[in-house]
Amino acid sequence: MTLSKKRFMADYQAEALHLFADKLEHLSTLQQYQALAFLIKGYYSTNWAQTKATYDRQQQKQLYYFSIEFMPGRLLGSNLLNLGIKDTVEAGLSELGLDPETVYAAEVDPGLGNGGLGRLASAFLDAMASVGMAGNGNGIRYQYGLFQQRFVDGYQVELPDDWLRNPYAWETRKENRAVIVRFGGTVNLMSRPDGSLEAVYHDTDDVLAVPYDTAMVGYHNQVVNTMRLWSAEPVPGGAHSLEEKARVNAITQILYPDDSDTAGRELRLRQEYFFTSAGVQSIITHFRRYHHDLRLLPQFVAIHINDTHPAMAVLELMRVLLDDAGMDWDTAWQITVKTLSYTNHTLMAEALETWPQSMFSQLLPRLAQIAGEVDRRFRAAYTRRFGELLVDRCAPIADGQLRMAYLAVIGSHAVNGVAKLHSKLLQQSLLKDLYMIFPERFNNKTNGITPRRWVQIANPDLSALIDTTIGTNWRRDPRELVPLVAQLEDPQFLTQLQAAKRVNKQRLAALVHTELGLEMPLDAIYDVQIKRLHAYKRQLLHVFGILEAYLAIKNGESRPPRMHIFGAKAAPSYRYAKAVIRLINGVAELINHDPEMAGKLQVVFIPNYGVSLAEQIIPAADISEQISLAGTEASGTSNMKLMSNGALTLATLDGANIEIQEAAGADAMVTFGLTTSEVAQLQASHAYSAKALYAANPTLHRIVDMLTDGSIPGIASEGREIASELLEYNDTYLVLADFASYIAASKRLDALWQKPQQWAQAALKNIAASGQFSADFTVQRYGRDVWDVLPTTGI
Ligand code: 26M
């Protein structure tokens, strides 16, 4: 949009007066932010209404991305950028005596997710708007987001995330679009005169689902899509006891803070059905305003199932088509499969959802009937050709459990993994039986990120340098970063690249100094590992690397200075992950208080990692630690964000790391460790002995001993637990097996750091090659191959 500074300043002052009956300069920073957010919302609201009207008028096929998590991050900066008015607004703010960064920081960061899966969902919404795809989000408006993390005596402490304490400026409550979601009760199937069946429900618990819509503003294209989040409320007029009201409100009260284990709790099942049913119902209601024949649904609607949490969309859509529309089974099934598609995000067995049939049929009796029928027909259809054994292994119901990943594959026309390796492993192991039956459904869609947030907004100095070097086209199409490689031999450019990195390091160092009172010299390597705390992600291997350096420096060896920066939340119930957090804080205490380590080696665990903190850390990173055991990390996305900011990846051949190496070149990063097939062989042969490695490698021996010999303060029981996982339980994630090659790889980076020019060249290769990991391309591949939804303004 076009906006002059003068007009903006007048609008802003008017908005402040309108909202708070006061002058801007008298308002609190929060009020200044709120006035600005409401003003900006007004700027795009016409386009928002227009976008919807256009989709309807042109009868465009729309995609609905069903996800139990979204992590949009703060929206003021990204809305301004995408509207094309960020510079103007910032100039206006400055002229009004306000600091833009301070105003931005007043915005709450909605933590409605755990990590990669939720952030990916939000990146996709941003990307779809930006390439002009008709794509909407469907999820849950949790009253409390992911807990706020503090450290007390080195332990993680969880505090509630009351993000709605102040009104959320970007959302709009759409009371007129509320729907009713039914739980429990009993269901009777009655024959209609025409022979079709009618489902009659008795004694159900009804819940009102109220949508709150948030605009997803596209980049410089006037497109504004919608993220719709549902809130549970008692049905008005129903006579409710306080207890009933509390049970209803509980449905959308909290986000489950676990991304590793399926708790199998009834409340979680309620959450899943709540937003899935509300989403399906509102899609069908909208569809029926324009069409009377539901058989046309797949021509106008695609529903994507983000992991299995909304997999009961298969059953819910069947329910609506059978019971509400009176369709026969085969027609309803055909439409369901054509409409739905599914992404798997994990190979970890413990993260695969199953529901006890008994719980499922208590809570969702009609869906349980339909699930039984899906199972019966699946077995009947494929047993003759594939044999009872195979079909039994991959049927949706077995041993009294509903297996949601299998249900999702069976009820979708497309299923994908999130990196080439991951998609291959899905076909070869986790879903191999269903791959036999439905090979044509399987495909890969490597994840992506939004460079608008992670480069343009988070790294203004790098962005400005790129602009002056190759122009601004990369901001629309990040593949246009490739020509930057022409500067590989340009010492002046490489120096400017280092200078931009230094500014970012200064900013992060200032934050760390205020938050933790630690000094981070700017000439040190900033070595970053930011992701959820998980055994398979092997933060422990990183800790072992730190201890190796500590012992070497103690021993008089000289190493380039390194700052080890961690950000990680642990699931509150995940004992091992919490022990590793305590360990990292203990190692930090040991090293940061040792005068011999000052300026050389420090450990910085910044609490409360999330989208906003990532925006501070990522631009400052020199090394990106991506060290999961090969074959365990589905894709990873912090690897892409760090690469695009010029960090060098230190990585195993896992997830998207492999594709990052293909893109940037083998000399632009460092890899190490067992490959997926080596891991598989080692595990199959039962030949692995952590104890033998411990006995054979003196450094490793020393480091493992440090866990239990009191060298590290405050970790007596946690150190014992971790040591026992390694030695007694034989090191599930092969930390000891990869230790030596990890250290060797890390030393290669130390050596490269001594040649600043070569380091800068490697950083440049990463930046130049990062464009292909833009989510703008990922969503277009989904649109082309899976959803049949095309971009209108895309690249
Ligand atoms: C399930 C049941 C009960 C409670 C919570 C869950 C649950 C929530 C989130 C399970 C898994 C969840 O997220 C998994 C996840 O974030 N996976 C990551 O997805 C990213 C995007 O595809 C990938 O980049 C990561 O490799 C993958 O770990």
From TrEMBL:
Cofactor(s), by name: pyridoxal 5'-phosphate
Keyword annotations of the record: Carbohydrate metabolism, Glycosyltransferase, Pyridoxal phosphate, Transferase
Coiled coil: none
SUPFAM superfamilies, A to Z: UDP-Glycosyltransferase/glycogen phosphorylase
UniProt superkingdom: Bacteria
InterPro entries referenced in this protein's UniProt entry, alphabetically: Glycg_phsphrylas, Glyco_trans_35
Pfam families linked: Phosphorylase
E.C. number(s) listed in UniProt: 2.4.1.1
Catalytically driven reaction(s): [(1->4)-alpha-D-glucosyl](n) + phosphate = [(1->4)-alpha-D-glucosyl](n-1) + alpha-D-glucose 1-phosphate
An example molecular function term from Gene Ontology annotations: 1,4-alpha-oligoglucan phosphorylase activity
Reported function: Allosteric enzyme that catalyzes the rate-limiting step in glycogen catabolism, the phosphorolytic cleavage of glycogen to produce glucose-1-phosphate, and plays a central role in maintaining cellular and organismal glucose homeostasis.
Family from the record: Belongs to the glycogen phosphorylase family.
Name of the protein in question: Alpha-1,4 glucan phosphorylase
Species in which this protein is naturally found: Lacticaseibacillus baoqingensis
Lineage of the species this protein comes from: Bacteria, Bacillati, Bacillota, Bacilli, Lactobacillales
